[in-house]
Amino acid sequence: MSMMPFRMSRRALLATAPLLAMPLGGGRAIAAGGDFNGFLAGLRRDALASGIRPATVDLAFRYVQFLPRVIELDQRQPDHVLSFAEFITKVVNPQRIEDARRNLAENSALLQRVQQRFNVQPRFIVALWGVESDFGKTQGSYSVPAALATLAYEGRRGPMFRSELITSLRILDQGHIRPENMLGSWAGAMGQCQFMPSTFLSYAVDFDGDGRRDIWNNRADVLGSIANYLARLGWRGNESWGREVAVPSNFDTRLAGIESRRPLADWMRMGVRSVGAPLTGREAAEASLLLPDGLGGRALLIFDNFRATMRWNKSVKFAASVGMIADGIDRG
Questions:
Q1: What DSSP string runs through 96-137?
Q2: I want to staple 140 with a disulfide (CB 3.0 to 4.6 A). Which of 15, 159, 267, 329 is the partner?
Q3: CB of 256 closer than 8 Å to CB of 289
Q4: What is the pLDDT of residues 185-232, one digit of tens each?
Q5: What is the reported pTM?
């Protein structure tokens, strides 16, 4: 999952384009991809050799065509990269925090069962759900097999997307979702968790025991899968993520960085102060100081759970937004 292009989450901002996939043989779109049919024939051989049933491959390929828009999005570079402060203002907004509080309340019984099984606090599960897909509202409308086939054929990371496509066929072969319903972002991230197919096979769970891992429509599977993935990434259920802090104007920035771990008491002696509730020294054994916008910008004192969130998405902005939304839920 770390290989995906950066999204609001790793996926959600890229999940807004219209569904372009149509049955194979769509004429102009196929021609735009050159020998795309020949490429698919090779993929079919690989899929069958890996044990996927022919009927599954044939049905899935009915929804595959070359998607020029996917290549355009893969190659596009943003004109303006948001600063940390701009990103947090955009993502951690009052409406999202209010929606997160409501979703936590509406799913409280389910979230308690999920917490008992995976030892991840409900507010962080809900916060991740909100950042990834706006609580399921922005899952993406691209056919995942079509998007992955396009990227495998002509994208910058063809072998990786080829592997993900074969994995998506395996998910279909196991009966977790029908091909026409396997929708996601242009980059192939799927469902309310926005999992890549390989992540799905490794971490998605059938929390309600109905025999399918449905991260598109099944709330129990969605929340359980988020918690399972976080837990497997090293989440500590008795700790928070970190804290926004203020640092002295003359602070030595060489001491900052995610690899620089110190006891909280050391940071406090250096003049680092919490924005909000005071630091007590009991939040975690060690912390790192991050200055994503440099000295004078917003500063974070982060714990190991922040690192776990960054294993989900290698972005300080992403991990901080999850933590801040979770804190907003808690304050409510």
A1: HHHHHHHHHHHTHHHHHHHHHHH---HHHHHHHHHHHHTTTT
A2: 15
A3: yes
A4: 999 999 999 999 999 999 999 999 999 999 999 999 999 999 999 999
A5: 0.88
